[in-house]
Design a protein that fits this description.
mainly alpha; 0% strand
């Protein structure tokens, strides 16, 4: 399970770099189970 979380965090970090925080936040919000945008790794 932790491997999938690591992959997910990396995927969202890459998507934020390419598409921006707002777009990624909208996508994440539409995925059931995520609820809100995953927090950036290393940022509070």
């Amino acid at each position: 399970m932790t491997e999938m979380q690591s992959v997910g965090k990396e995927l969202f970090a890459f998507a934020r770099e390419k598409a921006g925080e707002d777009v990624v936040g909208q996508v994440a919000a539409s995925i059931r189970g995520l609820g809100s945008s995953p927090k950036r790794q290393g940022h509070s």
